[in-house]
Amino acid sequence: MNDTGFWWILALQIIGFFVICIKIYAKSYSTEKGKNLATKEDVGEITQIVESIKTSLSIKIEELKSNLSYKNEHLIYLRASERNAIINYYKATWVLVLNFTRTDLIKYEIDNFDEKNGEVSNSKFLRYISDAELILNKIKDEVSNLKYLMDISESELMFFYDKPELTSIIGELNLSLSEFERSLFRSINLLLQVFTEISVIASNGTLTKEAIIEAKRKRSDILANWYEDRYNSLFFIRTFNGNLKSTLLERLTSLTS
User: What's the pLDDT at 44?
Assistant: First the structure.
């Protein structure tokens, strides 16, 4: 073989070698590219799944936050309403108790009259009786209204806090208040009856000093019984009202925790 043939064969071998290398590289590249493409597709699919899960979790978290917010707002509203109910009931009770405490029937004495020849001028006397009757009836109306407001506030309180201990205290307190109310109304009605009797006498023109003295005696007896009942009733009212205050304060403290 001459030199030209040798170099020709060598060139062919080198070219073949490069061709083989290129084929191997191309195959390897294609394989790797396919793997990369598959990996990218897998990553894309996984990313979509993750994003879907994140979206679902975000929605559920927002729903949970919304539910918790609603429950918290509802709880806050209930506690605020119960707090107002406790305060309103205690105020209504004390207003009624103070009204009882300050009610004084002694100022409605029958002493506005003039004496002349054993008889009494009745014009001023009748006007005084009329004013006294209006005031006494007004006292009854005010007590009835305050008792009504206390009953409403009690119903509201019981809606939130119907516990045996509180129910027992309120029951005893209401009993004492009712006894006081009956005693007050009984005394007022008896006084009104005395005023009516003496007014009839005065209207007939036969009002005498003796009739006035008798009316004042009856009034004194009524007031004596009234003040005795008042003292006993207020003693029990203050006792149960003190217990009520302690119980309600304890409940108010628990609402702030």
Answer: 60
Q: Give the pairing type, strands 115-116 and 119-120.
A: antiparallel
pTM of the model: 0.62
Q: Which residues contact 114 (CB under 8 A, 6 or more apart)?
A: 120, 121, 124
- The answer to whether position 71 is within a domain reads no
The rounded distance, in Å, linking the Cα atoms of 146 and 92 is: 7
The closest alpha carbon to 230, from 184, 189, 185, belongs to: 184
Distances in whole angstroms, Cα of residue 199 to Cα of each of 131, 143, 185: 12, 26, 20
Average pLDDT over residues 115-139: 70
Q: What is the pLDDT of residues 144-180, one digit of tens each?
A: 999 999 999 998 988 888 788 888 888 888 888 888 8
Domains: count for the chain = 1
Parent domain of 158: 80-255
Tallying the residues shown for the chain, one arrives at 257
Q: Is 204 helix (H, G, I), strand (E, B) or coil?
A: coil
Q: How large is the average pLDDT for residues 107-131?
A: 60
Q: At a CB cut-off of 8 Å and minimum separation 6, what does 139 contact?
A: 103, 184, 188
DSSP-derived letter for residue 208 is B
Q: Is residue 23 part of a domain?
A: no
Question: What are the DSSP calls for 83-130, one per residue?
Answer: HHHHHHHHHHHHHHHHHHHH---TT--S----EETTEE--HHHHHHHH
Instruction: List the one residue out of 124, 142, 122, 144 whose CA is nearest residue 134.
Output: 142
Identify whether 35 is part of a domain. no
In a domain? residue 89: yes
3-class state of residue 2 by DSSP:
coil
